[in-house]
Amino acid sequence: MSDTKALLARLRQNRANRNEQPQAAQQDLPPDGFDFTTLPDYKQMSMQRAAGDLAGIASPFFRETSDTSGVSIQIDGQEALQFASYDYLGLNQNQEVRSSAAAAAQKWGVSATASRLVGGERPYHPALEQAIADFYGVESALAMVSGHATNVSVIAALVGPKDLVLIDSLIHNSVSDGVRLSGAARLVFPHNDTDWLNWKLTEIRGNYDKVLIVVEGLYSMDGDTPDLKTLVDIKQRHGAWLMVDEAHSIGVLGASGRGISQHCEVDPKAVEIWMGTMSKSLGSSGGFIAGSDALIDFLRFKAAGFVFSVGLSAPLAVAATTALGLINRPLVEKLQENGAYFLAQAKAAGLDVGLSEGAAITPVIIGDSLGAVIAANRLLVRGINALPIIFPAVPEKQARLRFFVTAMHSFADIDRVVTETTAVIKELEDLPDLAAMIASA
Ligand SMILES: Cc1ncc(COP(=O)(O)O)c(C=O)c1O
Predict the structure, then answer these.
(1) pLDDT for 303-341, tens place per residue?
(2) From atom 12 of ligand 1, which residue's Cα is the shortest distance away?
(3) For a pocket test of ligand 1, which of 145, 168, 172, 288 has the largest count of ligand atoms closer than 8 A to its C-beta?
(4) Which of 14, 115, 211, 289 is most buried as measured by Cβ atoms within 10 A of its Cβ?
(5) Is residue 287 within 8 Å of residue 144, measured between CB atoms?
């Protein structure tokens, strides 16, 4: 049979197989089809909502908000001090960043209109990528439309079923999702426990082809940092790649905001894969990878979130490029002074700040989820916006209020938030046991 005939026969057979399948599948369908409300996670959400309603507790999520100065915010028509924004350096408020984005939108439009692979390169993408690579002191960088999608598709492109990925127990969801998609074996190591990591790799390294270790530069729920020097030693000893997610550490850590490598005095080239987002300190949106020419060359053809997704839009790319040029020592010092001041004042007031190192993120641990939601609502009444982080985002009994400190805050703002938070937590002691009330209702 000729190749064409064989191909046609295979196509016919495939079509015949396809025609048979729906019959078989339909027999397994429930009579009313699938109902989203039967999903276990939907049921859990509904129970949480019902518990809140029963106790008369308003949801703190998806509130109607209008940003004014970055420090002050209007929520449901009420003025509040903002402690729930990732705009660490205030660059989302910066006129130069905003004007450059507006001019770029005028010149190029709001959409990049196609994947760069097929739509072609426009100058604002290489300009941003060169600025990121220079900022890091590495060879190359690649920008994508979303930080979350960057982690997912880069990890899925780099490792596969014969490989192992070791992730810190507090790693962001986007990293876990990327590992799942890759099909690689996944091992979660105790938070920041480099001894455990080293021991485990000594034991199992030989079972895998490639090994990837993924950590964050600044942990977003706890506000603490990894020991980068030791991680670099470990990955070198065991022949692994190291990937660092700098979503919260770029612009925040290090004397001039270069991130965790500057903070830990590690050569940035010693880390294979730097990942970051532009949605926090860079006052824009999108994700990036920085590293060697070969890594970036590979990802430009193999990372699905780059190849099969539209290019970053001009206003976002240009805003991030402008923001990178505006990061300077005095601005970073102001943020670092504020972060350290918040931590010192909170500790002095006797608040439980968990693992925080006082770098822009400090949690105040409340305990149970309902208590954290009530505390956030009461803080808002007192004119402060800080969001609760509740189970399952953090373990049960570890629910917390999370405070993001920015360079825009004053010491007086911080004094006020610490005073009000202390007062609200004191009030919680006098509340009846709501969880028990709800359970018995
Ligand atoms: C550590 C970490 N990585 C990745 C992301 C995803 O970034 P983006 O929100 O820019 O998509 C986030 C988001 O908050 C994050 O905290």
Answers:
(1) 999 999 999 999 999 999 999 999 999 999 999 999 999
(2) 247
(3) 172
(4) 289
(5) yes
Q: Which residues of 173-223 form beta strands (DSSP E)?
A: 185-189, 211-216
Q: How far, in Å, from the CA of 148 to the mean position of ligand 1?
A: 6
Q: What is the pTM of this model?
A: 0.91
Number of the ligand 1 atom closest to the C-alpha atom of 277: 10
Strand partners, 217: none
Contact yes or no for 398/365 (Cβ under 8 A): yes
Residues with CB under 6 A from ligand 1: 146-148, 151, 172, 174, 216, 220, 245, 247-248, 277, 279, 287
Query: How far, in Å, is the centroid of ligand 1 from the Cα of 141?
Result: 18
The domain limits of the chain are: 54-89+329-440, 95-326
CATH code reported for the domain at 95-326 = 3.40.640.10
* Sheet architecture: strand order including 78-82: 65-67, 72-75, 78-82, 384-385
Q: Answer whether 54-89+329-440 and 95-326 agree in fold.
A: no
User: Which CATH code fits 54-89+329-440?
Assistant: 3.90.1150.10
Q: In whole angstroms, how far apart are CA 381 and each of 54, 69, 79? A: 20, 20, 10
Ligand 1 mean position to 248 CA, how many Å?
Answer: 8
Residue minimizing CA distance to atom 9 of ligand 1 = 147
Q: Which residue has the tokens 């970036």?
A: 296
Beta strand 241-245 with 273-277: parallel, antiparallel or unpaired?
parallel
Task: Kindly report, residue by residue over 124-162, the tens digit of the pLDDT.
Answer: 999 999 999 999 999 999 999 999 999 999 999 999 999
